[in-house]
Amino acid sequence: MSNTDVNNNTNQIGLEKADMSAVVAKLNDLLSSYHMFYINVRGYHWNVKGEHFFSLHEQFEELYTNLQVEIDEIAERILTLGKTPLHAYSDFAQHTSIEEDKNVHDGNQCVKGVVKGLQALIEEQRMVSATAAEAEDQGTADLLDEYVQQQEKLVWMYNAFLGK
User: Fold this and answer.
1) Of 26, 29, 32, which Cα lies nearest the Cα of 140?
2) Do 132 and 81 meet the contact criterion of CB atoms below 8 Å apart?
3) Residue 17 pLDDT level (bands cut at 50, 70, 90)
């Protein structure tokens, strides 16, 4: 097999194109879930009311700001793998694992929504990371494993707020 044949079978970072199909599909699903969770957290930020307004309003802003960075990194990872990230709300709505959560005002309900969303992301990221590792895509696996570690701590902290 010539070098040209090998290069036609791999992407720009040397990973097998065929192996990346499942990874990219799952990354696009994850990107969709991130977008839905981001929208939910923005809603919590804007609409939270009650005695913990000031602390939660600030925490939700910090969370959605971090989500924006992660969304960008996931999309850029898809591009690095040689594919196109989903970028339309209609696509996100079809591919997300997270349900829309609207008109939530109570601080505890907002925090419960955050915990539920983080748990969904963690579960989905573990699956994508496993798929990436099987395809020898260490870059994707490492990126998602870092997110999981950070989000597991957030789940603990938000649950502590809820008295759990």
Assistant:
1) 26
2) no
3) confident
User: Which residue matches tokens 């701590």?
Assistant: 153
pTM: 0.93
Q: Cβ neighbours of residue 138 under 8 Å, at least 6 residues apart?
A: 132
Q: What would the two tokens of residue 23 be?
A: 């990874």
Residue 7 has pLDDT above 70, yes or no: no
* Contacts for 80 with CB less than 8 Å, ≥ 6 apart: 12, 13, 139
Sign for the CA dihedral angle at 46, 49, 54, 56 comes to negative
Torsion of CA 68, 74, 75, 78, to 10 degrees: 180
Average pLDDT rounded to a whole number, residues 15-25 = 91
